[in-house]
Amino acid sequence: MTATARAEPVAVAPAGTPITAAVTTAARKLSADALPAYIYDLDHLTAHLAGIRSVIDACGGRIEMLHAVKANPDPRLLDVIARHVHGLEVASGGELAHVRRHVPRARLAFGGPGKTDAELAAALAAGVERFHVESRHELYRLDTAARAAGRLARVLLRVNPPSSSPAGGTAALTMGGVPSPFGMDPGEADAVATELARLPAIEVVGVHAHLASGLDPAGCATLAETVLAWATGYAGRHDLPLREVNIGGGMTVDYRHPDRIFDWADYARRLTRLAAPTPFTVRIEPGRAVSAYSGWYATRVLDLKRSHGDWFAICAGGTHHLRTPAAKGHDQPLIVLPADEWNRPWPRPRATAEEITFVGQLCTPKDVLARTIPLPQLAVGDLVVFAMAGAYAYNISHHDFLMHPAPRVLHLGEPQARHTRSSPRV
Fold this sequence. Notes:
Blueprint: E1 11-13, H1 21-29, E2 37-41, H2 42-57, E3 63-68, H3 75-82, E4 87-90, H4 93-102, E5 108-110, H5 117-125, E6 130-133, H6 136-149, E7 153-158, H7 167-170, E8 173-174, H8 186-193, E9 202-208, E10 212-213, H9 217-238, E11 244-246, H10 264-275, E12 281-284, H11 288-291, E13 295-307, E14 310-315, H12 324-328, E15 334-337, E16 350-359, E17 368-379, E18 383-386, E19 408-412, E20 418-421
């Protein structure tokens, strides 16, 4: 099909759905066989990070920011992000090797449950600066590996302290303050503190806790206050000179209201007040809120049909490329870029003033990207660009189901745009 796009998008749903001029231009230039495609606007990401870093730096050096690589391991994104943060957090041996290969000079922290002996050894060899240790057993294994390597492992004890905050009722994900596989129970953390003399290759420099995700600045600050208070009490009970406390990430990204961006300045002000009386550095560890807004998933309508009164747009690709809406149970924000030309000898399938559900090519009714989206019009061949696809998108998707081709990846901005075919590992 040959298509020429109109000057303006026909629909943006919901209101406030972001798309940059560079992404709009790039999507319209993509040929049919170049879709689906992920489009990353690196200039947009740079500006977003510069804004975050400016408010962090205004905190007088009391706050540092790591970035969770798990949000999106795309090498070009990581290269940009690494220039604006104090370090990267990896959560597997695969992420460790990936980051060392693509961002070799980045400062690293190694977190995540279920670390293997091989991963601990690889992290020591790679010069990881901080280990977020999840259990007493893991701590003893790390000490064994560090002694064998002739290294000193600097550790933050990941803990799961009790929490009386309302996060469990308002957070998108609750990771702590409740029974959880993440971090040490407070009793286990107390026991570990009494055994450190038996671990000569371990230096405990701090505490780590990530209790919930999907919170506004006030909610994040409430959980930070809980963690900082617990860490201060823990250090006092066991005479541990803590150098840092990592309070995790969890900053909300609102897919239903894309224009409601997390207020980093408000959060920084709240953190500064909380950190003021403490002798240690406070670290935050965002992921989704850093990169989500700088990625788009572009596809096209392959078919459009009505079934039992409801309209369905079948798009190239689907949740095997963009699992986020299925994983989080939301409608992915979208922009329709209409294509005018139609060179088939039969009438073009078209819907006018209808609510349309956007699905992919998979043989499952769960392959849904957005449900009952009201649109003034939609036709086969139109471009559909799903926004907020820069985090927990392709990298968490079930790529091999039905064995469709991987999406292309297009990077816009610094230093130059280029196409790549995605690796199954990224």
